[in-house]
Amino acid sequence: MSVSAYLIGVRNMDGTFDRMMVAKKFCDEQELSYPAEVAEYFGHLADESEAYIREQMAEIILAYGTGSGWRTERGDVPIEIGAGDMTKWASINVADIPEGIESLKVMLSW
How far apart are CA 7 and CA 73, in angstroms? Predict the structure, then answer.
């Protein structure tokens, strides 16, 4: 049996998200191009549904690992990955966590 571990950053879906979503919906309804700020905020998710965007933007996989080792999902997340005898670990300098992330979640799956 294999175990996978995920280190997940959980964002605060604050007023910025709601404001950007209102602008996105207006553009969709009027068949307009998104303003640069909206396009940049949603990135590659801009053409997706609100529910999908909300789900994808609320949590960010910072790192994940299996029995064969850890990988970082995003190059800009400062994670130190290590291993010892029968252990694997991830260390994050909390001052460097991406803006908007309010908590960390560790998920194990098997």
Answer: 10
Q: Where are the domains of the chain?
A: 4-109
- Angstrom distance (rounded) from CA 30 to CA 33: 9
Write out 38-104 in H/E/C secondary structure.
HHHHHHHHCCCCHHHHHHHHHEEEEEEEECCEEEECCCCCCEEEEEECCEEEEEECHHHCCCCEEEE
- Residue 52: φ, ψ to 5°: -65, -45
- pLDDT over 70 (residue 61): yes
The single-letter code of the amino acid at 5 is A
Q: At 30, is the pLDDT very low, low, confident or very high (cuts 50, 70, 90)?
A: very high
Q: Could you tell me the pLDDT band of residue 43, with boundaries at 50, 70 and 90?
A: very high
pLDDT at 82: 72
